[in-house]
Amino acid sequence: MATEISRETRSRSEARKEFDSYVQSEAFVSLLDDAISKQFEKFFSSEDLKKMLVATTTSVVSTVVKESVHASLDEVIWENVMPLKKQIEELEDENCYEVVTEFCKTKLGYNLELCEINRTHRVGRLRPGKQRAIIVKFCSYQSKIKVMKCKKNLKGTSIYVNEDLTFFNKELFNYAHTNLKDLPVWSTDGKVLIKQQSGCIVRAKTKDDVNGLRDN
Q1: What is the pLDDT of residues 119-157, one digit of tens each?
Q2: pTM of this prediction?
Q3: Three-class DSSP category at 116
């Protein structure tokens, strides 16, 4: 009995040595390398990988675009920029600072001081028969808010005051205005807001958000 156990132990020991020797041999390494290479080649040529790469690239590009939009939006809000559009008669050699302060006093009912304006000027090229908008950069966020709160006094006139939005949000704002004619649409601090018939105010971040409100 003891002899049989001893033979079995030696047999296992020899098998282990043979296995270790084979694993360390060039033949096994070559076989393993060949198998791994074939699997990698199969994986990198597969349709699943192509789909994964396309999805990942799309996701990265989308993230970069969104971050760029928000970075631009933060800059706009920080700079407190606001355009005064339409029917503010443009005169030759006009002083935009005086035009803006007079506009705020007579049309908005707010006495805006010159020291509250960082910079103001007309926007775009001068064209015959066309009224260019005036853009205002305030020295403080508080001054901008005070002016924006008074814009309700322009109701019934052809003059309106809006925030200077990023290209993305301006396009979204116009899209909401066009497709939600029965709902109030406005912007606050660069955010496009919509008041539903229920009285609930929601923020639209994409055109899909607008379409969802239109279809309800």
Answers
A1: 888 888 888 777 888 888 898 888 888 888 888 898 888
A2: 0.57
A3: helix
